[in-house]
UniProtKB/TrEMBL annotation, chain B:
<dbReference type="InterPro" id="IPR014782">
    <property type="entry name" value="Peptidase_M1_dom"/>
</dbReference>
<dbReference type="InterPro" id="IPR027268">
    <property type="entry name" value="Peptidase_M4/M1_CTD_sf"/>
</dbReference>
<dbReference type="GO" id="GO:0005737">
    <property type="term" value="C:cytoplasm"/>
</dbReference>
<dbReference type="GO" id="GO:0016020">
    <property type="term" value="C:membrane"/>
</dbReference>
<dbReference type="Pfam" id="PF01433">
    <property type="entry name" value="Peptidase_M1"/>
</dbReference>
<protein>
    <submittedName>
        <fullName>Peptidase M1</fullName>
    </submittedName>
</protein>
<dbReference type="GO" id="GO:0070006">
    <property type="term" value="F:metalloaminopeptidase activity"/>
</dbReference>
<dbReference type="GO" id="GO:0043171">
    <property type="term" value="P:peptide catabolic process"/>
</dbReference>
<dbReference type="GO" id="GO:0005615">
    <property type="term" value="C:extracellular space"/>
</dbReference>
<dbReference type="GO" id="GO:0042277">
    <property type="term" value="F:peptide binding"/>
</dbReference>
<dbReference type="GO" id="GO:0008270">
    <property type="term" value="F:zinc ion binding"/>
</dbReference>
<keyword id="KW-0732">Signal</keyword>
<feature type="domain" description="Peptidase M1 membrane alanine aminopeptidase">
    <location>
        <begin position="308"/>
        <end position="506"/>
    </location>
</feature>
<feature type="signal peptide">
    <location>
        <begin position="1"/>
        <end position="20"/>
    </location>
</feature>
<dbReference type="InterPro" id="IPR050344">
    <property type="entry name" value="Peptidase_M1_aminopeptidases"/>
</dbReference>
Amino acid sequence: MQFYSNMISFKALQQGIQQTWKYKPMVFFLYLLTFLLAVFVAYPLKSLLESTVGHSMMISDLVKGFDYTFLNDFKNAHGDGFLPIIDQSIAVLILYLLLFIFVTGGILATFIQQPPKYNRSVFWGQSAEFFWRILRLTFYFILIHSAIFCLFAFIFYTSSNGLSPFTLENEGTIAFNFKFVAPAYVLVAAFFFMWQDYTKVFLVAEDKTWVFQSLWSALKFIFNNFRKTYGLYLLNLTLWVLVLFINYSISTCIEFTSSSAILPSFLISQVFVILRLSLKLINISSVKTLYQFVEIQQNAAT
Amino acid sequence: MNVNKSLLIILLCLGFSASTQDQKQQTALSLRTANYDIDLTLDVDKKQVQAQQYLTFKNPSADTIWTMPFHMYYNAFKNNKSTFALEAKSLISTKSQEDIDQGIWSWIKVTEVIDQEGNNLSDSLSFVAVDDQNKQDHTVLMLHLKEPILPHGTYGVHMKWTSQIPKTAIRTGYNRDFFFMAQWYPKLGVYEPAGTRFATKGQWNCHQYHANTEYFGEFGVYKVNITVPENFVVGASGFLVEEKKAAKTLPSNRPLKTYTYLAEDVIDFTWTANPHFIVLEEKWKDVQIKLLIMPEHVCNKERFLVATKYTLDFFEDYIEKYPYPTLTIVSPPYYGLFSGAMEYPTLFTAPTLCILPPNIRTTETLTMHELTHQYFMQMLSTNEQEEAWMDEGFTAFFEAKMMDKFYPKGVFYWDYMGINIGSEEYRRGRFFNADNIKIAPMSQFGWLFKHQGHREIVYGKASVWLRTLEGMVGEACMKDIIQTYFKRWKFKHPCRFDFIDIVNEIVPQHHGDTFGPNMNWFLDQVIYGTEECDYSVHSIHNKEVAESLGYFDNTTTARVPTANAEKLYEAKVILYRLGELWVPQDVKITFDNGEVLMEKWNGKARSHDFTYTGSRKIIAVEIDPALKIPLDKNLINNSYVLEPESAGITRYFTSFLTWMQGAMITASALI
């Protein structure tokens, strides 16, 4: 039985990867969105640097990367110019979240309806259709995620006696507590992120008017198929950790410190941006696939 | 009275015999003006010290002295109206609410004073507040003598005292079973004969205890018998002479043990006790290094020991070999964190954490910093209350120098982001990030600094201008200055005038009159001034010089354009002095034909230009190309190129872009 659960999770993941590849225009759309919005923020920074310090010879050293003295002196001399860019970054981040909420309905509908190839009318039509419901759902889950985070932070803080040197035997207590609380948080938070994903699938697949109906259905579904759903979620999490690890290893091993290295360095980083976006879609697609597998089994049984 | 006299004579003899039989220094390194023989018992249940001490004072002057002031540091924690408590409000809370509610305060009380003649002086004590006349401040106890201290004479005084130890908040005290005992005994002030430091007539220097200043003490020999519960591990200034079971016990019948320590030619004595310490010992040449460390911190022992040896090696080469037989490093437990990082003679505290990753080099930085203080404040015993920059500034300067030499990857590095922060640039950055770098002159007494200005001025500004001085005069000259300063003033009490005199003596030996007859033009600005330094390249102009055409000098023939004439340019660079502080500057000018000129500018005028006429054009200008002047607050505007290289900005643009993309994708996890 457990073997079967594992297999079905693997199979869902495999199909998730295949379907993400099949509908790769969605990945590229999301990539383009992140790229353009990031340019929208990064370009003013470039202009600020060019207009204020562009003629300084210190600029040539920036090719090597992080320069504490430059950044410090720049902040002290031109820090005011940086504040609008920070504001703009926050605004762009919020805008991106809204846009992502908007397209989530389209992404899910595409995976559920499975047109032979990426279909714009399905994507945009369903994006508009589900926007408000997914927005509400996101809002509810932000509250839930915040509560879970605060709960674990509270557990960590109190079990570490408020980090107070006067009361702790040693800082090993903090490390020890962190070693337990952090993985526990990841495992528990994963459940709630998973619940959010299945709720979205139920919402779009069954076109429920009320978000709470989908919330309840998704929760029942997760508990009835806990090994499969949670196993799949952990698989997706593992894949994400793997990508991050490869990214970290490459960035740590290769030194990009010359002007000729800027382009390769940038291209590699963009590959990882695409990979991370793909993982996001793979997760949604595999969750949807698992949902459909189980539905088919239940229908066959009845 | 007679019994007391006899007892005193015995004590005196014992004291003398101890300091002659046990001494390790072949010859005294200092004048040994104030010598202490202390016998103490630590009551770990009551958190008290019961002690008696015999002080032998040698009058260093031709003055007849009628008083003796003592620092009673623990009285800073006696009430909430002490000068320390009032000043500390803006720094750190020194007491827990629980202690306040239970009325638990700390103090030190002298119960008996008898002079060498057997006169009971217990009624001749009074508290004085020499700095602010605060009557609630009892941190300086004045003893009025019945017999004067004669010129160049020796005077002995016996004291019995008890102290209630504070909970560790700032440097000293206890928490649970960890005791860190600094500034714990009645400590004599420093007698300054006329002509010493700022003294125009013979006087005691004994300030009250202030929250943001440290200490000042007289050189001497300390023989201290420390009696503690037998399961406690003890570390102290100096070296261990013997340890033996004590005859007495605590009221709770805990068996006790006595450790006898001897510290010679030091300005203070500090000790610590804790049952959990592990003692790790290593040798550096003939110096015994002792590391007192908690079991959970042993993983970081190499970080301490390697940094210690680097520092000892460095100073042996740069100044002089560390002269003491021992060096004790105390790495306090997490619950005693507030006792560090701090320097004391032949002992310092440097906290570490078992969770500290190797790329955060706090342990190494603290070790190098606190060990450097053995030179700057211990051997060169400056007054930390009046001139804190003379120990902290020099120490920060050397700490940065050593860290960058021995740990070139930086005080913090993270390969993933390509981050490396060097020690020197970090010090400079911290200084220029201060809220107000003009908050007060460096020459100001420490306790007069307001609004958190003390730290950045005495550490940051001082280390940055010392590096600037080194940049201007060169490393060899700077080394000569420091060596001369040390040779002349070691085991004495120099002040800024003494250092300034040496700078003015040594710099002309290396550079003639390049910098003028003396360096006061610079030192006055940085020590007594509050101004900032900022130079910039304002612009480059390459103006084509028009050929002379037409009639000139009453000629009858008009000059006409010459065929294929080489174009001439008036190439000019305009430099600004934006800050008030001025220093001479090197200016590097690069022309389009590859020629490079190094020009000198005295840096005084508000603006200056270099103009050249010829066929070449200026393409780049750099003020201070060798980065000799880190005191310049904005190094970005020190250079100018006509054709900017965009690669650096492109790198930052792409990095920021990718970072934004990453932030967006991470945030989308919420959806």
